Amino acid sequence: MRVSGYNLFPPLLGHIKNWYSHVDRIKAMGFEWIYINPITYPGFSGSLYATKYYYQYNPSFFTSSNQNIAEKELKDFIFYCRSKQVKVMIDLVINHSSKDCNLTQEHIEWYKTKDGALQSPGAWDNGKWIEWGDLAIFNNKRDPNEKDEEKKEDINKENDNNENNAEIKNDEILNPIWYYWNDLIKHNLDLGFEGFRCDAAYKVPKELWKYLIDNAKEHNKDVIFFAESLGCSIEDTEKLIYAGFDYVASSAKWWDYDGEWFVEQYDLVRKKCRQIAFPSNHDTKRLITEYDGNIWRVKQTFLFTAIVCDMWMITTGDEYGFINRCNVVGGSEKDYENISYDLSEYIKNIISYVKQNSILADCGEIVSLDIEEKKRLEKLKKEYEYHEHHEYYEDSSKEENNKKDPFRKFYKYSLDGKDKLLIVVNITSKERLLDANKYGIKYDISFENAVSNITDTVKMLPYELKIFRLREETYWV
């Protein structure tokens, strides 16, 4: 984690005048960015993500929905954040709008329709199709008359100058909605925003993103674009990377320290793009609720998500133990909860701790000792499947014991691969003893409860995550 961000969730705070008091404490915790969910005028459902007017504002947050009045208040807030050396990122929603958006009347041709009716997005949930009927999907293809069947495109991973990255010039644009989005982004840059979190980015053509990102960076070379890419395929994530996104979302919060999927995903992305990790966000359950009140697991997830990716982000209330997930439809100040506990100092110390250790702050390679051991045992099983061999049975016994292993272990390497740290997680609710000699542990440099003098074993508290420096000759995997 080189950079840290705080998701200021507007419904919890209400009018923009209430946001100011939070900026100082956000800055005090060490955050450099504030990310704000959509603040545009919502449609009939009231969802923040169902925009009715892109140039009018949500009356829940401003003195008036009128553009001039709301934007004056918005500029003042952004100016205040800048005075505290905090940058502001806004949500950009261009995959869909509310069905009662003014554009559905003024430019129905900008939308996907079937038999004249607006089409709504949706998703499969346990084999059932869930449709968001308040939303209408934009037709963002460069050629709006192109058939819905997406053309399969080969991605040349080695050549940045391939046709997928070719610059699209104005005279090549067939869809006028591209100009609309381009103007909207420039307008927000002029308001003072310095970053965009792009909702459902993988559902928008990458050619459009490249056009928008390239133009925005000509307007402000330091602007950042963050792709909300959770749930999409790795192929779609690659397309977003090649479109020019500075950050893509990481699935770090869901890793159980055991599955290969995360290591593969992390390794592929880190070589090409920066990643943002988070312990929870406005779309997920609160951690304290997900973990049934277990504060130790909450702190473990906070720490892990902070040490794996380039940027770390938390959501309003995470630091105070809020139990209810954010409500993007009809949420209000009444949802702001009493403080269950205060992790503000813990978060401040995490940010400081990580930034002082280059291996933790950078996205170097991750190698799971447990995954590598599984692979080795699987290989041995195949080799000795039809033969009786002592080593086979010995290793099978090891595998059985490994299932009961209370620890998950992985190395995190420096960017040049010349140095590494051992990270160990106690996945149980009991204190455990870790064999220091087995893993060549030399120093305990853990965030909390670091042991100054390593003996043969290291005591690990329930759900504790520890970080160790190793003897130079240690190569366990």
TrEMBL record:
InterPro entries: AGL_glucanoTrfase (IPR032792), GH (IPR017853), GH13_cat_dom (IPR006047). One of its GO terms (molecular function) is hydrolase activity. The keyword Hydrolase applies. Keywords: Hydrolase. Residues 18-351 form the Glycosyl hydrolase family 13 catalytic domain. Residues 141-164 are annotated as: Disordered. It holds the Pfam family hDGE_amylase. SMART domains: Aamy. This is Alpha-amylase family glycosyl hydrolase. It comes from Brachyspira innocens. The lineage of its organism: Bacteria, Pseudomonadati, Spirochaetota, Spirochaetia, Brachyspirales.
